[in-house]
Amino acid sequence: MKVAFFGSPAFALPVLEAIREAFEVVLVVAQPDKPVGRGLKLTPPPVAARAAELGLPLAQPKRLRNNAAFAEQLRGSGAEVAVTCAYGKLLPGSLLAVPRYGFLNTHTSLLPKYRGAAPIQQALIHGETVTGTTIMQTDEGMDTGPILLQEALPIHPDWTALELADALSAQAARLIVDALRRAGDLPPQPQDHAQATHAPMLSKEDGFVRWHDTARQIVDRSRGVAAWPQTTAFLNGARLKLAGLHVTEGHGRPGQVLRVDEDGLTVAAAEGAVHIRTVQPETKKAQPAHTWAQAAGVQPGTTFDAWTPPTPEPAQP
């Protein structure tokens, strides 16, 4: 089986390696290089860098739609099937028809739940205890194609998006090899579109603590945004990054500091309380929460700023 692999971030690397060990990878396709860091140095995505190390044929087209040259490159590679894993672009129908067995996508949710760009993060934010990987036949929609293989994965209660991504990446690597070995023999199962939920890309706003949520909801949100944008709270307008959150006992006004001790900071939620181990003020290094509280004069009764939803933009006439 000759395979073309479409992927970009580090999450996709175990999937690429598993395919490479079992099949012939005839083309790797990744997003174009992007400026990174303070110096804005042009840097290839991890999949592109790994393909270069391995000496695999590499393409990084800026666009796929109406790109006859790239379609011919894919056709000329001899790929019998293409696999996408966190590639980051929708595929036009003209491209999907090029490989004999089409495109297979590794999606990190139990479709039709959590279609979209951030299924790992949104599953945690919404308090899911089980997620999984779906191998689907790609169509022109956003994760709407028929399901070929699916496997559940229990979510450990202490996992953040970082640990869950590692577990799902390993699961996806194993499942895609199974799917490729059975190419053409897996009966496609249409998704129940009425049951679909969506997992939009995160924004900085998603990291803001909603003190009027329950403690469980606040901690689950923190787990989901651990990689980016991270958990953010405000005190007297000053931005703070919070880490090491877990649910604890306590009662008070949402956002009110209940206790400050050497173990950290306890803050009331709408239901229960949240214990915080680490605080990072803007432009400073992260520090134990009690050290920050002492320096900032934070004590029981101090109340964090309330989060208010952004005002929706008015509809265009």
From TrEMBL:
<dbReference type="GO" id="GO:0004479">
    <property type="term" value="F:methionyl-tRNA formyltransferase activity"/>
</dbReference>
<dbReference type="Pfam" id="PF00551">
    <property type="entry name" value="Formyl_trans_N"/>
</dbReference>
<dbReference type="InterPro" id="IPR005794">
    <property type="entry name" value="Fmt"/>
</dbReference>
<dbReference type="InterPro" id="IPR002376">
    <property type="entry name" value="Formyl_transf_N"/>
</dbReference>
<dbReference type="Pfam" id="PF02911">
    <property type="entry name" value="Formyl_trans_C"/>
</dbReference>
<dbReference type="GO" id="GO:0005829">
    <property type="term" value="C:cytosol"/>
</dbReference>
<feature type="domain" description="Formyl transferase N-terminal">
    <location>
        <begin position="1"/>
        <end position="180"/>
    </location>
</feature>
<dbReference type="InterPro" id="IPR011034">
    <property type="entry name" value="Formyl_transferase-like_C_sf"/>
</dbReference>
<dbReference type="InterPro" id="IPR041711">
    <property type="entry name" value="Met-tRNA-FMT_N"/>
</dbReference>
<dbReference type="InterPro" id="IPR044135">
    <property type="entry name" value="Met-tRNA-FMT_C"/>
</dbReference>
<feature type="domain" description="Formyl transferase C-terminal">
    <location>
        <begin position="202"/>
        <end position="295"/>
    </location>
</feature>
<protein>
    <recommendedName>
        <fullName>Methionyl-tRNA formyltransferase</fullName>
        <ecNumber>2.1.2.9</ecNumber>
    </recommendedName>
</protein>
<comment type="similarity">
    <text>Belongs to the Fmt family.</text>
</comment>
<keyword id="KW-0648">Protein biosynthesis</keyword>
<feature type="binding site">
    <location>
        <begin position="109"/>
        <end position="112"/>
    </location>
    <ligand>
        <name>(6S)-5,6,7,8-tetrahydrofolate</name>
    </ligand>
</feature>
<feature type="region of interest" description="Disordered">
    <location>
        <begin position="298"/>
        <end position="317"/>
    </location>
</feature>
<comment type="function">
    <text>Attaches a formyl group to the free amino group of methionyl-tRNA(fMet). The formyl group appears to play a dual role in the initiator identity of N-formylmethionyl-tRNA by promoting its recognition by IF2 and preventing the misappropriation of this tRNA by the elongation apparatus.</text>
</comment>
<dbReference type="InterPro" id="IPR001555">
    <property type="entry name" value="GART_AS"/>
</dbReference>
<dbReference type="InterPro" id="IPR005793">
    <property type="entry name" value="Formyl_trans_C"/>
</dbReference>
<dbReference type="InterPro" id="IPR036477">
    <property type="entry name" value="Formyl_transf_N_sf"/>
</dbReference>
<keyword id="KW-0808">Transferase</keyword>
